[in-house]
Design a protein that fits this description.
Layout: H1 2-10, H2 38-53, E1 65-69, H3 71-81, E2 88-92, H4 104-121, H5 132-142, E3 167-173, H6 181-185, H7 189-197, H8 203-209, H9 217-246, E4 251-256, H10 272-278, H11 287-304, E5 317-320, E6 326-329, H12 331-337, H13 340-347, H14 351-362
Parallel strand pairs: 1-2, 2-3, 3-4, 4-5
Antiparallel strand pairs: 5-6
Helix pairs in contact: 4-5, 7-14, 9-13, 9-14, 10-11
Protein name: Carboxylic ester hydrolase
InterPro entries: AB_hydrolase_fold (IPR029058), CarbesteraseB (IPR002018), Carboxylesterase_B_AS (IPR019826)
Domain Carboxylesterase type B: 14-316
């Protein structure tokens, strides 16, 4: 994060960046005999430390911004609805809508499967005595993806809570569904159609909206990825934006559409925003990517400093890319970059049915090998 800190000093708006380590996967959850959500509590402890001590580093405990991308955004949204003592929040490519809090019985089932698999490896093993490699193997054998959060009281009505934060910055990329691409493309088209049918009364309409036809494999698989993108990323952002506007709190929305500079044909995929924002790689070979990354850092710094991140920020979305373009967006431009109309149609359907399709398409298919 040194580049964004250096840029903040150059702009005369110095910030202090703090990154946090926390427990992951099965260790991120409770065991039923103690507090739940241990990863969340690790983060709460770190946040409390920052509030208690950041003034000693020249920081302001009343000006804390909490920011996260993907899984980090899920946790940041959780802190938001739990009234974390932060002034503002940045959610990039994720929210609780992506992985909502789960009931204890599902968490317990996951722990039990992992523990049973450890016993298969060695009867003397449990989660406290197994090595890291043994736990990884036990999790792999379970065939179950980990949960990020288990349900507890602060998550009541989380869908519409805006917490105590005063401002919110939301960002997404063009192809959020890219992390599911390898898994979806390995799925038989008939199984994709079956997953859409799981939405029961909405199945036929969804298949028509997303061009899911088993005899057209490419269209079918692209439609599945588009549905995941719209239901798990785009629609949640629309909901969060509305909740903050209804609460009369400033909310800023931007679209990150600058393609991967090493392989532009892959587009602006999930996590490319981190490459651009933090500048951890030498992007001098791609002037457009460098230009977008610089502009993103300046916008983030302005937001963190309590300013509006771009012109007409509360009225207009902002586009970072493609091809190095930087501009406020008119409604027709937003419609051409995101499937806003389809997201609105999804918002009119019962989420409990859409969740069935989402699970059928996405469960177990996340991969960074895309």
């Amino acid at each position: 994060m040194s580049k964004i800190v250096a840029d903040s000093i150059r702009l005369g708006k110095p910030i202090i960046a703090v990154s946090v380590q926390y427990r992951l996967n099965v260790f991120a959850l409770g065991n039923g005999g103690g507090p739940p959500n241990l990863a969340l509590r690790d983060q709460e402890l770190a946040l409390q430390w920052v509030q208690d001590h950041i003034s000693g580093f020249g920081g302001d405990p009343d000006m804390i911004t909490l920011a996260g991308e993907s899984a980090g955004a899920i946790y940041c949204h959780a802190h938001l609805v739990a009234n974390a003592r932060v002034r503002q929040v940045i959610l990039s490519s994720g929210s609780l809508f992506l992985s909502s809090p789960q009931p204890w019985h599902l968490v317990a089932s996951f722990r039990d499967k992992v523990t049973a698999n450890l016993k298969d490896l060695d009867q003397t093993l449990d989660l406290e005595t197994a090595s890291a490699s043994q736990v990884v193997e036990a999790v792999r054998r379970s065939g179950v993806q980990s949960f990020f959060l288990e349900w507890e009281e602060p998550f009541n009505a989380w869908h519409t809570k805006t917490g105590s934060a005063e401002r919110l910055l939301l960002s997404d990329v063009t192809k959020e569904g890219a992390i599911y691409q390898a898994g979806v493309w390995a799925t038989d088209p008939s199984d994709i159609a079956t997953a859409f049918d799981a939405s029961e009364q909405y199945g036929d309409e969804l298949k028509k909206l997303y061009h899911v036809y088993p005899d057209r494999p490419s269209s079918c698989k692209n439609g599945a990825l588009d549905f995941i993108n719209d239901y798990k990323y785009l629609l949640p952002i629309q909901c969060l934006e509305k909740s903050f506007k209804d609460a009369r709190k400033p909310v800023f929305r931007c679209l990150i559409d600058e393609a991967n500079p090493w392989q532009p044909s892959s587009g602006a995929h999930h996590a490319i925003d981190l490459v651009l924002l933090f500048g951890g790689f030498d992007l001098s070979f791609s002037p457009s990517a460098e230009r977008v990354g610089q502009a993103m850092r300046e916008a983030w710094i302005k937001f963190i400093s309590g300013e509006e991140p771009w012109p007409e920020a509360t009225e207009k979305y902002y586009g970072f890319g493609p091809h190095g373009s930087l501009k406020t967006l008119e409604d027709w431009e937003i419609q051409s970059r995101r499937r806003i109309g389809l997201a609105e149609k999804l918002s009119e359907m019962e989420s409990s049915f859409l969740d069935k399709t989402s699970r059928g398409l996405a469960a177990g298919k996340v991969s960074l090998l895309n």
